[in-house]
Specification:
Layout: H1 2-24, E1 31-36, H2 42-63, H3 69-93, E2 100-109, E3 112-114, E4 117-119, E5 122-131, E6 138-144, H4 165-177
Parallel strand pairs: 1-5
Antiparallel strand pairs: 1-6, 2-5, 3-4
Helix pairs in contact: 1-4, 2-3
């Protein structure tokens, strides 16, 4: 009897976790900003944060009123040449001896917690910036929908909506398997 109950419990856990495992490998409808410093020195970390601030200012204008992930992505893609100039100019202004590389696409990320938002490991659309070798501590946020909360960079007066990351994952799984 006990063995039967354990077997049913295990089967139920495997059944209900399979869609979540499948969803973990899928891209979620967000765009992340990911900035990698050249190294962990105080100066390189300072430059990383200045690059972050400049990129957030530029990107915010692009995505603040976008209504879909496709619209936000299209705007970021069209702005890549000017974003590369912003990156280059910021590094030069700060006296960095390193070049910056900027890419927009789908990248693999580990699990992360951002405030009350937990994002499972998986593939996410991102604006990915490497300064120099990009081996230093990194900084990331969700830039669409706008969740990058950095003082002086993001307008905090707009409406905010907090959702459960688990509920969002389950909603995405449901959409995938719904007839």
């Amino acid at each position: 009897m006990m063995r039967g109950i354990l077997g049913l419990t295990l089967a139920a856990l495997l059944f209900f976790n399979a869609p979540c495992a499948a969803a973990a490998g899928r891209s979620v409808d967000i765009i992340r900003l990911h900035v990698h410093a050249h190294s962990d020195t105080e100066e390189e970390q300072r430059i990383k944060l200045l690059v972050r601030d400049e990129m957030l200012r530029a990107v915010r204008e692009l995505v603040v009123d976008a209504t879909t992930i496709a619209e936000a992505s299209s705007r970021v893609e069209r702005a890549l040449p000017s974003l590369k100039i912003t990156l280059r100019d910021t590094l030069q202004r700060e006296g960095s001896k390193h070049d910056g590389q900027l890419g927009f696409g789908i990248f693999l990320f580990p699990s992360r917690v951002y405030g009350r938002l937990a994002l499972p490991a998986g593939r996410y659309r991102a604006l990915n910036i490497h300064i120099g070798d990009g081996h230093g501590k990194n900084w990331w946020c969700v830039m669409y929908p706008p969740l990058c909360l950095v003082d002086g960079v993001v307008n905090r007066n707009g409406p905010r909506r907090f959702e459960s990351a688990l509920a969002n994952i389950l909603r995405n799984v449901w959409r995938r398997f719904r007839p």
